[in-house]
Amino acid sequence: MLFGHQVSLLLILLLSIPLTYASDQQVQTSLSQLSLSLEQNPKQTLVKVDELNQLFIHPQPSSRFWFELKIIEVKAKTKLGHFMEAKQHLYELESYLPVMSTFKEAPAQIKLLQAQLAIKQSDISTGLLLLEQARNLVPKEHLTLRSDILHLLARALRYQANYSEAERVIKDAISLVAPIQDKARLAKYYNQLGVIYDYMGSLQLALRFHEKSLNIQRQLQNQQGISNSLYNIGEIYRDLEKYPQALQHFKQALEVDKALGDPIHIANSHGKLSQVHLQLGKISEALDHSQEGIKLARASGANSDLAWQLSILANIYVAQSALAQALSVAQEALELAIEAKAKRTEHTVRIVIIEIRLAQAQYKKALSEIEAVMALPGIGNSYRATLLKYQAQALQQLEEYKLAMLSLEAFIDTKTQLYHDLDKQQALTMQQNVEFIRQEQALKLIQNEQDLAKATLENLKLQRGMGASLLLCFMAVAIYIYKRQKQKQQFVELESDMMAESLAQKNRLLADVSHELRTPLAALKLTVEAMQHNIEPDPVKGFLKIQKKISHLDNLIKDIYQSAQFDNDAMVLDKQPVDVSILLKEIVEEFQPMYATKQQTLSFSEKVHDSICNLDAARIRQVIFNLLRNSHFYTSSSGKTQISMNVNEKGLTVLVEDSFPGVANEDLEKIFERLYRCEGSRSRDHGGSGLGLAICQQIIQAHKGEISASHSEMGGVAITLYIPHQSLLKSDS
């Protein structure tokens, strides 16, 4: 508040004397402070601007200060959703352009703000036209204005699902401001690049740039920028199905958005909270946030945003089995998305409509709409694979088995292409890592040579100063430097060898992963070809086999991705007080029917008085699920599996052990390695990914605990989980 009064006082003092006596530096400082206030609190900024405007009896278009003040007023009103007023101010400024000929950037700046208004209201075509005009008008020396135009152009291209071009344009914007260290713009552009990578499916890159943006915004204390980064990082957590973390980020974003007052941002945060609550099964909360988002989007007149909000409401109605309402809302959303030319939103809404048709058993309509969506430009392989899977399901229900076979073949080919692209991307990343290491080593060698030359020069000067009597001392120093240089060189070579070995391990893992992906794909293709040539006598049974293999493939991909996320320290534990005894009892009850199919017994025992521990319940459940699933599949019929638990002053111990068959000693040592296959009766032939135990180990290690395997007295394998008492007391965020 004190800062706001200081800005107002400074500006009033400047305006109380003729502007010709106020230095350009003073005016520029005042405007910079007002621009900062705009980012922090647009409502308060607009109040200040209104007060200052009263000091001008008539418009003064020849005054730089008056022009900049009008620009700030337009930006504030745009942020607050006062679009008509902002548009009127821009028309007024355009009419004064002949008088403002000394402000070379004015025409381009006005076009940029007009484009921003058009895009805010989902008129992408008009926005692109205005941006092209702005690019032609901007003077070459105005780097920041050129970068702002590129930034908005990248956003418009993203709305049109033209992600590769959007990526190129925003990188051009970054290249303009990076040399001058414009942190505010860099943070904004990094955030935009992160969103583009998120939409392209490159979540690692997306998270990296969002974090870079967030760090800069925190340095600048830019609340709107912080909100944008929290929102986009929350979206990545949602993509990764980490809903508690996503919920936390979206809630924080909504609080900041409400304080700043931008209705579109507030609506978007409500929409994301609605999506996460829906994923968590909280229908009532999802509906509340959805209705708030729709109300704000309707009031703003932004059809693209409204279409997206309505698509969320349609998903809520599907969850409530209100399919007629879902279809009505989805069709309204589709009309709005088409009118706004928002391609990504249109694709999303059309897929929602297809899911509704399948739920209504309207398979012919679903097929017609699938063909329409696949004919649209900009449909990527990920969307195409989903559509082909839905197409195969619809054709199967209509008993069009041959056509369903063709759809499945296309689905397999599309998935194969996705994996091929993934392999290429990983290979490129590996190549970039090698090049980075090579450059790093070269720099170290150059630095070492420079250090040696500098030391030699200094010693030569010393030798000249002190004479021949110090020759022996110089030789000793030279020998010392030489030996030290040799040690440094050996260290560099050792580090290089270690990095090369690390890369070799990654290459081996990549080869194993590629093999694991191709194996089920090959089996799937054989089954499809068998049905296509009528070798499979029962088509329904054949489709069940195919669906089972697709499910296996999906599980494998999910496990590979999750394991990679753990390797990159991307896992965040959501520790909460949990009654471990109740948790284990619930899991045992869930598995009883599965164990009964093989006449196996599953029991649970505990030695504990208080079993409340701070843990990530979802992750611990995942560990126990993996262990019990393995035990069920690999233990003989009529076998036994037992879970026991103990909590004491040392920590939590959980033991899962089963009966015959067991594993060899050499297998026990390697059982937690990724993709490791046991020789013998516990080999992987039950649809597992080979990553389950590796993921279990990563989860327990994230809890600062240990997991080990040994021979069970019951004749099988015993897996012991141990989490120390100190870790159980800590609540990680």
From TrEMBL:
Keywords from the named record: Kinase, Membrane, Phosphoprotein, TPR repeat, Transferase, Transmembrane, Transmembrane helix, Two-component regulatory system
Pfam families for the chain: HATPase_c, HisKA, TPR_MalT
Enzyme Commission number(s) from the entry: 2.7.13.3
SUPFAM superfamilies assigned to the protein according to its UniProt record, in alphabetical order: ATPase domain of HSP90 chaperone/DNA topoisomerase II/histidine kinase, Homodimeric domain of signal transducing histidine kinase, TPR-like
InterPro entries listed in its UniProt record: BphY/WalK/GraS-like, HATPase_C_sf, HATPase_dom, His_kinase_dom, HisK_dim/P_dom, HisK_dim/P_sf, Sig_transdc_His_kin-like_C, TPR-like_helical_dom_sf
One GO term describing the cellular component: plasma membrane
Gene Ontology biological-process entries: cellular response to phosphate starvation
Entry annotated with the keyword Nucleus: no
Sequence ranges assigned to domain Histidine kinase in this UniProt record: 512-727
Membrane-traversing stretches: 465-482
TPR repeat ranges per the UniProt record: 227-260
GO molecular function: phosphoprotein phosphatase activity; phosphorelay sensor kinase activity
Catalysis performed (reactions): ATP + protein L-histidine = ADP + protein N-phospho-L-histidine
Protein's name in the database: histidine kinase
Native species: Pseudoalteromonas luteoviolacea (strain 2ta16)
